[in-house]
Design a protein that fits this description.
The protein is built from 3 helices and 6 strands; from the N terminus they run βββαββααβ. The N and C termini lie far apart (45 Å). With 142 residues, the chain is of the alpha+beta class. Helix 1 (40-62) packs across helix 2 (102-116). This is OsmC family protein.
Length: 142
C-alpha cells in the first residue's frame, strides 16, 4: 500500500492514494489554512469509520441479514497536551434493515472491533480507548 501527500500552500495538502484517489486536507484559518478540506486527524477518524463500517456490512451480508443502510457516528477526545493524540473514540453504528437479528448485529460490531478492523486494532494498541455500540432501525418494503 502506498500514498503520497503533497504540500499545496499554507496548511493545505493533497493526498493521493496508491489506487489513484485524491483528497484535500487543510487546516483552520488561524493556523495558516483556508479551511478547504478535512483536517489530518479527521482523516484518521474517517479511516477508522470506513474500515469498521465495511466490516460490519460485510459480516451482516454474509449472515444473510436484510441490511439496507449502515452508518457509524464517531466521537473522539484528544489529549490537552502536545502531541494531541486521541485518547478515547466511540463508534455508534446505526444499522437499518428489515427483520435484522440483534444478535447478528452485535456480533458483527464485536468482530469488527476485535478481529477485523485493522485501524481500530492499531489505535487500541497505541493506547486509545475505543468503545462501540449500535442501534437497529427497522425498515420494511411496505
Amino acid at each position: 500500500m502506498q500514498a503520497t501527500v503533497k504540500w499545496v500552500d499554507g496548511a493545505q495538502f493533497l493526498g493521493e492514494s496508491g489506487s489513484g484517489h485524491s483528497v484535500v486536507m487543510d487546516g483552520p484559518e488561524d493556523h495558516g489554512g483556508r479551511n478547504t478540506g478535512v483536517r489530518p486527524m479527521e482523516m484518521l477518524l474517517l479511516g477508522l469509520g470506513g474500515c469498521s463500517n465495511f466490516d460490519v456490512i460485510s459480516i451482516l451480508k454474509k449472515t444473510r441479514q436484510n441490511i439496507s443502510d449502515c452508518r457509524v457516528e464517531i466521537t473522539a477526545e484528544r489529549a490537552d497536551a502536545v502531541p494531541a493524540v486521541f485518547t478515547k473514540i466511540h463508534l455508534h453504528f446505526v444499522v437499518s434493515g428489515e427483520s435484522l437479528k440483534e444478535k447478528q448485529v452485535a456480533r458483527a460490531v464485536e468482530l469488527s472491533a476485535t478481529k477485523y478492523c485493522s485501524a481500530s486494532i492499531m489505535l487500541e494498541g497505541a493506547g486509545v480507548e475505543i468503545s462501540h455500540d449500535y442501534e437497529i432501525v427497522e425498515q420494511s418494503d411496505v
